[in-house]
Amino acid sequence: MNILTGLLNGAISGATPILLAALGGAFTFYAGVFNIAMEGMMLMAAFCAVWGSFTFGSWLAGVLLAILGALALALIFIVFAVWLDTDEFVTGIALNLFTLGATTYLLRQSFGVKGVFAGPGIDPIPRLHLPLLADVPLLGAVLSGQNLMVYAAALATLISAFLVFRTRFGLRLRAAGYNAASLDSSGVSSARMRVYSLLLCGVLCGLAGAFLSLGYVTLFSENMSAGRGWISLAAIILVNGNPWGVAIISLLFGFADVLGLLLQSYQVPSQFTAMTPYLATLAALYLYARRHRKERSYVNR
Amino acid sequence: MSTQRAEAQVADRSVQLAPPLIQMQGIVKVYPPNVLALDDATVSFADGEIHALVGENGAGKSTLMKVLYGLVHHDRGEIRYRGRPVRFRSPGEAIAAGIGMVHQEILLINEYTVWENIVLGAEPVDRLGRIDRKRARGEVQAIIDRFHFALDPDAIVADISVAARQKVEILKLLYRDVSVLILDEPTAVLTPQEIPQLFAELRELRNEGHTILFISHRLEEVLELAERVTVLRKGRVVATLPAAQTTRSELAALMVGREVLFSSRRTPQAPGDVVFAVEGLRYEDEHGRVRLKDVHLQVRAGELVGVAGVEGNGQLELVNAITGLLQPTAGTLRVAGVDLTHAPILERRRYIAYVPQDRGRMGGSLAASVVENAIMTHHRLNPRLTRWKGLLLDRKAAHRFTDALAQRFNVSMPARAAPLRALSGGNQQKVILGRELLLECPFILLDQPTRGLDVGSIEYVHDQMLAMRRAGRGLLMISANLEEIFLLADRIVVLHRGEIVADLPVEQATVEQIGRYMLEGKA
Fold first, then answer.
1. Could you read off the pLDDT of B124-157 as tens digits, one per residue?
2. Considering only CB atoms, which chain B residues are within 8 Å of A171?
3. Which domains does chain B have, with CATH numbers?
4. Which in A20, A113, A120, B438 has the greatest CB count within 10 A?
5. pTM
6. Given CB atoms, is B108 within the 8 Å cutoff of chain A?
């Protein structure tokens, strides 16, 4: 019983940052932006969250700064990839590498430490106890007492699905990805839809990063996003951006994460178990590539 | 009769049907740096008429309509719409004013339903920002019913025909209450069977009070549908004529600036030996469907054989079996006595010249330079174009070869190094035709060689084909245009469901009879 709730709790915690980033990436996926900058946005947000929380002594300030940090990267992406029409892939790589360097540098400049900054001055995002649900056996132990950001992620999934599939915004967003010229000829700017999608991605990656450094743990360490942005990309591609699918895949990745930890107690080397999420990503990308090769196959006419 | 005199004469006939709805006065458009697309073009369109714009490629008819639609901005001139001067900065403004345009290229979201495509950009929403599906579907159904368009609003666009997609484009404008519809070559994407339906629907729209401006270079269609025709040449409006008082020859002469012959220039000549023969050709696709069924076909030296048929009756498979893109299930292919049934493609290229229907994908590479397109295949077969046993291209030789081709086939190009894309459709086809004819093959296969070309270019391609016929080559032409076949061919064969159902000398065939063979497989 304790192992089970522990596993589920761990899976949910592990899934949350991936889910938030993947929902952000799903908007850009639907808008037809090949956005791989979730990794960088998340890392920047994680740093800004710790900085804001430490400086202002409030987790809320941390979250706000995290969103601003990720939005700043989204704006750079917009300037280059939407406005100046540079290659999205190269822009994304540049942003990810820039963020890795920038956060490492800022860590030293701001706190005078190398590697990790932790301390009692950082105000973490609180956990939320749901009064009635907490009393339900099993379910209560899993669903209540989670970090505030976990509930935010669940809500974000709901809102994303509604926005994408039910609203005027969603119809235009998907149209931008399917056939931008068609949307433009309908009198709606597809470039504007791409901008909106990137801004939404910035906000959601900001929340993902804030959860990493103020929820999952309360510290900032160099490169602490550790490939979660890439995993979120894999999740998006696997389910073609569908928010519900993204949620399920994120939970599976979270489960792979926690399973790795569990395997360590059975004498499997930790270096090996740490690979599980990335192996899952490789498998996902293989499926994607195979599907695309079929579409590319030669047709006369 | 000189052209000037013809123009002076026709000018007298351009009477107004009603006070003009749209007046375009002295429109000048220069595409940077110095291409004069519209040169003082003046034309007016009456309320509730069907008005056709004809002209060769590059004559300015599309540009003129894009100026009206706000997609292209003119440098000089004035547009008056409903009596007031207007200048639309974007298509959105034009649509808001009631002028909409359907482009040649269909721009729809394949993944969306018909109704979603129609309302996109003007979606009705409820208070929560949700799309009001019931209302949207209802409104779409209402306009479908009003204009008698046969369409299912819930169908996914990817699943419907090209003709139906075009209707969706038209409905998209009608949904936005557009009263002037501009159509850019609407029939270019349709099969011959779909055209009457479109025309009926356009007439219905006209009867409901819409004004229809349509661009075309198929003169017979123009005369059938339009009430008035405006001819453009080199950016100028040469004439506006009532369709009932003009002829195809007159329009063609006005378009090209000289007389164009529509009668056959084929001279009788006795054919020589068989140069091309397929026997018992059969092809089953991966699903086991029979696409070619026991096809026997011969072409003699100095003979031009035309293949007629409704598209999708085995033409593609026949062409691919000859060129080697597919391996037939049974049967043999011999050209000039050589068995090529199992030959690799490069080996076939020594005997078969091939002008494909799709210039940009099969015929050449639009992104590659004119030189690269000109020497394709030659660089493998002609040792003078390479050095070091074919390892290195000889650039100078390639340039000489390209210049010779350009001169002999009248290709006008900005530069040898320009991408093929930069050339007009007619010039692209000349590069490909020239390359193929210079292969000096005994047999020439042409798949829709004049599709999408203007009158002048079509005439040129036809002349080259007849010259090859006189030179004793064997030619096999697949064409969707029966008129073209009757004009050029010595013999007509008809493909119906993968079978040759008729093989007649052209003198013994009539258009009606061939039409019945095409549709029913028997006369």
1. 998 888 999 999 999 999 989 888 888 899 999 9
2. 112, 116, 120, 123, 131
3. 1-98+181-259 (3.40.50.300), 106-178 (no CATH), 261-351+441-523 (3.40.50.300), 364-438 (no CATH)
4. A20
5. 0.72
6. yes
